C-alpha cells in the first residue's frame, strides 16, 4: 500500500513540476517553490527524489516512454514509410501542444541551470528521434515511395530541425503559435 501511495506522490510531484514549467517567464523553479505549490515540505520531496535533477529525469523518462511508445504504434500500424513519417511529425508536434511544460524540457529551456547530464540525455533523445525518422524514410525508400537517390539522413535531419523549430516557436510565443499551424502543406513539402 505504501509503495502505491509513494508512486502516486511521485506522479503528483512530476505533474506539478510540469505544470510550473508551463510558465516560461515565471519564477525559477526551486524545490522550495515546488514544495509550496504541493503544500508539502521540501523534505517530503526528497523522500521521493534524491535531487531536483532526478525530478527532471522523471519528466524526461515520461517523454521518452510516451514518444517512443507512440513511434512503435505508428510503425506497427502503418506499412507506408511516408505515412509513418507524416504521423510521426504530427505526433511529435501534438505531444508538445498537449504537454506545454514538457515542451520546455524538449527544447532545453527548463534545463539551462540544471545538471548538464540532463541536456545530454535530451540530446540522446533527439538523436533517437532522428534515427526513428530515418527508419520511416528507409521504409519509404524500400517501398519506392522516395527516389532511390534520396538522402534519408539529410531528410531526417531536416524533419527533426523543423520539429525543433516548431517546439521553440510554440514555447517562445507563450503557447500562442500552434506547432501544427500550416502543417499539411509543410509536411507535403518535406516528404515530396
From TrEMBL:
This is Nucleoid occlusion factor SlmA. It comes from the Bacteria. It comes from Pigmentiphaga humi. Residues 30-49 bind DNA. One of its GO terms (molecular function) is DNA-binding transcription factor activity. The keyword Coiled coil applies. Residues 7-67 form the HTH tetR-type domain. The gene is slmA_2. NCBIfam families: PRK09480.1 (NF007015). Keywords: Coiled coil, DNA-binding. The lineage of its organism: Bacteria, Pseudomonadati, Pseudomonadota, Betaproteobacteria, Burkholderiales.
Amino acid at each position: 500500500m505504501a509503495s502505491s501511495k509513494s508512486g502516486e506522490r511521485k506522479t503528483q510531484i512530476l505533474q506539478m513540476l510540469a505544470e510550473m514549467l508551463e510558465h516560461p517567464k515565471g519564477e525559477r523553479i526551486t524545490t522550495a517553490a515546488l514544495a509550496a505549490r504541493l503544500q508539502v515540505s521540501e523534505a517530503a520531496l526528497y523522500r521521493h527524489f534524491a535531487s531536483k535533477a532526478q525530478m527532471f529525469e522523471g519528466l524526461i523518462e515520461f517523454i521518452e516512454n510516451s514518444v517512443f511508445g507512440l513511434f512503435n504504434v505508428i510503425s506497427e500500424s502503418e506499412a507506408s514509410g511516408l505515412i509513418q513519417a507524416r504521423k510521426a511529425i504530427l505526433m511529435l508536434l501534438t505531444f508538445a501542444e498537449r504537454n506545454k511544460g514538457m515542451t520546455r524540457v524538449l527544447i532545453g529551456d527548463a534545463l539551462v541551470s540544471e545538471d548538464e547530464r540532463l541536456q545530454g540525455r535530451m540530446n540522446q533523445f533527439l538523436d533517437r528521434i532522428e534515427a526513428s525518422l530515418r527508419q520511416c524514410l528507409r521504409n519509404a525508400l524500400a517501398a519506392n515511395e522516395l527516389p532511390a537517390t534520396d538522402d534519408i539522413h539529410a531528410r531526417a535531419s531536416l524533419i527533426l530541425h523543423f520539429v525543433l523549430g516548431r517546439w521553440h516557436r510554440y514555447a517562445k510565443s507563450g503557447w500562442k503559435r500552434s506547432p501544427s499551424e500550416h502543417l499539411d502543406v509543410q509536411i507535403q513539402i518535406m516528404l515530396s
